[in-house]
Every structure is written in C-alpha cells, then in structure tokens.
Amino acid sequence: MPSIALALLVVLALAGTSAPPRDTAAAAPLRVPPAATPPMGWNSWNTFGCDIDEAKIRGVADAMVASGMRDAGYRYVVVDDCWYEPDRDATGNLRADRTRFPSGMAALGEHLHAQGLLFGIYASPNVRTCAQRTGAYPGATGSGDREVQDARTFASWGVDYLKYDWCSGGGSTRNVRVAFTAMRDALATTGRPIVYSTNPNSNFPGEPGESEDWCGVAHLARTTEDIQPVWDSGHRNEHPMGVRNIIDVHSGLSDRVRPGCWNDPDMLEVGVHGVNGYAGLTPDEERTHLSMWAMFAAPLIAGNDPRTMSEADRALLTEPELLAVDQEPLGAAAHRVRGGDHQVWVKPLLDGTAIALHNQADTPARITTGPAELGLPAGARLARNLTDGTTGPLTADVPAHGTVLLRIDHLSRRGAHRRPGTPSGHPRRSEDPRPGAWSRRGARRRRTPPPKAGRTRRGNRAPQLWGR
What we know:
Elements: E1 40-43, H1 45-48, H2 54-67, H3 69-72, E2 76-79, H4 105-114, E3 118-123, H5 130-134, H6 147-156, E4 161-165, H7 173-189, E5 195-199, H8 208-211, E6 212-213, E7 220-222, H9 243-249, E8 262-264, H10 283-295, E9 300-302, H11 311-317, H12 320-326, E10 335-338, E11 342-349, E12 352-359, E13 365-368, H13 371-374, E14 382-385, E15 391-393, E16 395-398, E17 403-409, E18 454-455
Parallel strand pairs: 1-2, 1-9, 2-3, 3-4, 4-5, 5-7, 7-8
Antiparallel strand pairs: 6-18, 10-11, 11-12, 12-17, 13-16, 14-15, 14-17
Helix pairs in contact: 6-7, 10-12
C-alpha cells in the first residue's frame, strides 16, 4: 500500500470548547495503510439509531458474510452512538452497556475478526456524545481530555476504526481541529493501525467539513450535515441532507482527495426505508447515490439492515464494476465539467477514465458528452457502460434522478486526461493540484507537496493523469 508523508500540524489551544482546551504538540504523521483506499463497511446509525445491542450487531455481521458484502469489500462494522454505559467506571474507563452488550466490546471485536471483518466504534471529543446532547441517551461520556485513556481502551478491544463526532455548537473551528488532532495523536500512541473518521459539521455552524481541508488530521472527514433517505431536502448544507444536495456540495471539493485522505459525504442510504418519516430512495436514486459516491472516491459505509435487505439492494451494493470505480488505486475524485440538470462528471483512473452522466431533472433525458468536454484525446469516443456492459458512444438515456457510469480503459498515451485548452496533453503545473501528481514532463521526477491544513480553494480543478 502506498506510503504518503503528511505534513506535521502544530495547533494552539483556544478558549471556548465544550471541554477544556489543551495544547497539542507537533504530531506524528497519520498512518496511511488503513485507508489507502476509501474504507468500506457498515454503520448502525441510519437504520437503528440508539436501538442497538450485541445480538443485532452480530446478526448484521453474519448477514454481511452470507450476502457477499464482506467479500465485495465491506469489512468495517461500526457500532455508532449509544453503545456505552452512561457513566465511566471508577478509574474513568469507558465500558459497554452491560445489558445490551453483555459480552463486552472486546468479545464483540473478537467475533467480528473471526468473521473476517473489522471493528469500528463511535466517540465524541466533547463532554457528551450526540445522543447524550439531544437527550436521546443518558450520561456524559465524551472523550474530551481523556483521549489517551480512551484510545488505549479502544486498542485493547481490537478496534480498527474510530468515528469521532464533534456534535456541539460551541467553540471555533480551531477548537475542533485541536480536539480532533488530540485524538489523532492518542491513537498513534497505541501502535494499532486505526482508521480515523471525523465529523466537524454536526451542530457546528459554517460546515467546516466543506470549507476546510482536514487532510493530515484524519483519514476521512465529513463534508456535510447528516444524510437522510431522501432525494432533495431543499438544504444547501444543513440538516437534513438529501442525495442531490450532497452531490451539489461535492462539485468543488475534488482537489483535496488522495490516498489516506478522503472526503466523506456520509453513510449510504441504499435499502433504508421508513426511517425518520422518509419513505426512502427510488431504485434510480439509489443507483445515483452509490454511483456518485464511487465517483467521489468516498467511503462506502452501508446503513441498511443486511439481515433483511432485498436482492436488488444486495446486487447494487456489491456490483463489482461500480465498486471498482470507488476503490481505484489512483485515489482521485471526480470533478464536474458540466452543471445544470444534465451533468457530466469525470474521474481519472490509474488506467483510464470514469464518466458519470447524471440527471438531476425530474424527467428522463439523453445526456451526451465528447472528448473535448472531458479533456480526453480526440479519438476517445467509445466507452463501456458499467450498468449494462455494452460498449458504445459517450451517450446514454438517463432516468429522472438517475446516473449512468461509463468507463474508458487504458488511457496511457500522451495526451490522456488532457484538460480543455491544453492541446499538448501536458497540463500546466498550476492546473494539477493533487498532492503527489506527476511533474509536467511526465517522468518520475519531482512531486508536489501536500497542501497545508486549513482552507481549500473551491474551484472545480481536477487531478490529472497523463502518459509519457
């Protein structure tokens, strides 16, 4: 797996956090191997909320194995909020709810590992978790100022993935960064490779997950407020979010994605129906949901109930061609080259290009693109349709709210992935913002350094790949 040196981050503690502020020393680089490709798995929240217990989690794990989800790549089983006792023990340690998780979290982790799965868990840096803050669950078991203690507890339980949720309206964005960095450093001291997933947005004004770059702080960072199983909530970036709304947010975020640092547009709502008053997505909307997340190189964390999912949902979630676009080793995210109702998105692949023909309109449409719009050589006029397997021109009949993915393979010649307006096929350096991108001359020469933590520019610039 690739090894990427990330910049050391020095942060200052500020007043005003929900937990007392603390100084954070210059930290060791994040471990890249656990998230060299976007993590895939399942999370309990979208379907169960706080209504979780050991039997449900074990049952879901068994179903993930039996259904083929595990073998398709869904490895992480993440137990979200409400798994803990409302109070810590006498020495300040977190502990599992003894009624709902009688075997304890270490035993649950052992069971998941024995199934060939990985173990994920939820925590918050503030005094209370999200469920405790809203009154949905009792107690105050946040990890603020207990990062090292809690990280050691998680490692002792065999945890492989931590979802760390800000869940407070207090403090500043720099307070959030301090708190997230403190847990990052604490996880590093355990010596256990743990994927670190953060959400700086929940209940926090300004949506810093969208406006700021969190590379170097976490392996993946949420870009939007919470998703619900709905196409359009009418919100730009506030709770709740629909699939269309999240796609719109991601139109300007492709430049910060690379192996070990992923934009997280939230968990999947494929197969989630009748939750929180929402009927759920249509089949075409579900395909768009998964297809666009794959184009974003996003984590694919299912939120349905695998024990009862339909064959159609199982087939979509495990579709090899679609998942391959997400897990593609180059680690680039798609950029939008055409907006409006009939959109075109382009994603560079290590050995080709993925194209999304995305219809946001309420009626079907034929969407057509071409090499010039895509920034490809003039001869790149045929593509494989990843839905039906046919090969044909760069066009498709796309249902309302639907998406068709096309793929052009083996673009390794000079001029591949050319941006419009650069006939030589070699983009100017300023046009290729992706950290680690090739130099203009194409050979393995100087690589550009990763960006500094902080605000990212919001343009639609895209990572490029071109041959020698």
